[in-house]
User: What shape does this take?
Amino acid sequence: MTDTSQQDRVLIFDTTLRDGEQSPGATMTHSEKLEIAGMLDDMGVDIIEAGFPIASEGDFKAVSEIAKQAQNAVICGLSRANLNDINRCWEAVKHARQPRIHTFIGTSPLHRAIPNLNKDEMAELIEQTVSHARNLCDNVQWSPMDATRTEEDYLCRVIEIAIKAGATTINIPDTVGYTAPRESADLIAMLINKVPGADTVVFATHCHNDLGMATANSLAAVEAGARQIECTINGLGERAGNTALEEVVMALKVRNDIMPYRTGIDTTKIMNISRRVATVSGFQVQYNKAIVGKNAFAHESGIHQDGMLKNAETFEIMRPEDVGLSETNLVMGKHSGRAALRAKLEELGFTLADNQLKDVFVRFKDLADRKKEVYDDDLIALMRDSSLDHVHDRIQVKFLRVICGTEAPQSADLTLTIDGVDHQVTATGDGPVDATFNAVSKLFPHKARLQLYQVHAVTEGTDAQATVSVRMEEDGKIATGQSADTDTVVASAKAYVNALNRLLVRREKTKPAQVTGIAG
Ligand code: KIV
Ligand code: ZN
Assistant: This one.
């Protein structure tokens, strides 16, 4: 059970699977969502917002199953301010040991104009929907969306109504990332002081990062009395994202001298979940990202390295192992055995069943044959690419040979397995990658448009693996794909096919679910 009795305890509400997944292109598969939820539960997240059950059958199923599997965390689903949404949300979360319904409505003048409700009508709808949610579930969170741009007197009025109607958590969203630290603190302090019944609920802060202030705004809100921070792993989320979980948690840990608040997070699990979310969402973490970026603990300049060798505290405010970064980047090679591979993968956060390990070991040996030294990053890339993640893919790359060089046309001879049947074609293009993509389109015609094609070397050297990221768009739906291989064109083909598979999942996921009116 979550302990909220102590004043210094800050609840961590993770919305990677809802607000994070809402980010264009960040679609996760069902099994990926279950896996991430398991990791969040295991690392000590207090509340997991598992999805938006009314949005699609896929979301409903994911929230229901996460609710069934959760051991410790409260499982929360999002719902708009209508009775249908709330009922559907309850149907999904009710399986949890500790369920929560989160219902919201936009309260700022701009948002009130959308359903065309005046202040009184909206207030009535809030009373009706929060009471309905509370009749179903004794843990109800209510959010006035765009709270930071809502008139203060109206905000106080609707929060009072929500509390009287039974809300147990009041979340204050900075939906468009507009607020600044002092304002964020002042708003929370004002609400706690002015709203009758404020002392009976937990105030939460939900910040977006449009001006790069989400972490600072969240911490300022905590200093003013908020006791729940809403955040996502790697700061994933729409536009510039949400508050990054790893940043607020580590800030509270490292600067506990000036911010004396505790979370229940096992910080040594941060790196693993960060890598996993980057993989399944297709959103790579920028190298200089605080806490989880590849360079966050790298000291390259001579002065820094010298200082570090004498005393790590010279340039380090936290230890890499505090966030689960292993001290050694133990090199593996073709003589490494299965047990060493298992141990290394476990250290990197991948726990495999024996049959899975067998499959990965074959791929590892294949990589080690082509590449002298296999580093942690190579293994992470290999796991990203592992057939474990792709067994259910409708389209798979079976064979590829390209002809390229100074003489045009470059061509690709490609075999794809589509729904279990092999199809072969040869196509030409402007370079080997273009020829390969044309070959995929010939075998699996589609309307998707390539929005982004990016290649990164995983490690150094000419035998390094290349990680290719591809982003595609079809009818407003976006999906990203990734793959790694020592052959850049093979990685490109697999990344392209990976994105196509994800678009197919997305098509399925966004099939119309239930049609709902605002007041339900
Ligand atoms: O940013 C926002 O306002 C939200 C709400 C649905 C809580 O995500
Ligand atoms: Zn949000």
Q: What stands out?
A: Residues 488-509 form the longest helix (22 residues).
